Amino acid sequence: MSYMTLETFRSRLEKASGGSVALVGIPSDANSSFLRGAAEAPPKIREALFSESGNTWTETGVNLAEDGRLFDAGDVAVDELAEPWERVAEAIDLLLERRLSPIVLGGDHAITYPIVKALRRKYDRLNILHFDAHPDLYHDFEGNPNSHASPFARVMENGLADRLVQVGIRTATEHQREQAARFNIEVIEMRDVVDGMTVALDRPVYVSVDMDGFDPAYAPGVSHPEPGGLTPRQVIGMIQALEGKIVGADVVEVNPIRDHNNLTGALAAKLVKELAAAMISR
Questions:
Q1: C-alpha angle with apex 5: 255 to 114, nearest 5 degrees?
Q2: Rounded to 5 degrees, what are φ and ψ at 170?
Q3: Please, where are the H alpha helices in the chain?
Q4: Residue of 10, 73, 246, 250 with fewest CB within 10 Å of its CB?
Q5: What does R_g of the chain's alpha carbons equal in angstroms?
Q6: Of the candidates 79, 190, 206, 230, the residue with the CA atom closest to the CA atom of residue 155
Q7: Does pLDDT of 130 surpass 90?
Q8: Cβ contact 282:261 at 8 Å
Q9: What confidence tens digit (pLDDT) does each residue in 84-102 have?
């Protein structure tokens, strides 16, 4: 699917039904460290999502093909812009204006900040459930405050989340631990995660899934693999058990260049399905 300008994106949304879940790609990895490649992920996730090897039914019995429940809004280009974050926020604004709940395909994790910024303009209160190996709380990383290692520092210092719960963390530096304490972030480190664990979050909830939160055995196609991580069942179970209404989500940091047989893309697609089902059923 070709990348769109914001004007083309606006026109495309005229085909969507209000109240649906909208899938949108932000193919950006300009703020990645170490390796690029995450910008190539949205088409690979869609390939797995719409593959004839599976179907459109979710584990909880929701058929995503029914009544236009899942609308594919396409990919919005941002990396050619000097100030890409406003483009991302404006794209999310357009979705919300049409009563479309976004599931955003990255791209790297830097895109989460402008997405949450747009959502907070709509919702007076907002909680975030964040799955990741890394806290992404650097004030700036290698001199870049927009780094994919910094989005939640931007979110919290701007008061965009009432609660931030991070699950699967296993690489926190001293600085990031200080940041977590400063912003009163609830961190469930990977060493404390157990099967069947749930997270209690009420009010509107945003779910952010960094694919390197999973153990590399399940998600090899990431730029920063960190052994000893989450299983797909642990994450899917926590998503399905959420009681608060999910108003948006992102699935980020798939790097197809590092993947094997699109295994990581397939897991990302599975998460999209279960996130969409949870959003629709609530």
A1: 60
A2: -150, 20
A3: 6-12, 41-49, 84-97, 112-122, 151-157, 174-182, 232-241, 263-281
A4: 10
A5: 17
A6: 206
A7: yes
A8: no
A9: 889 999 999 999 999 999 9
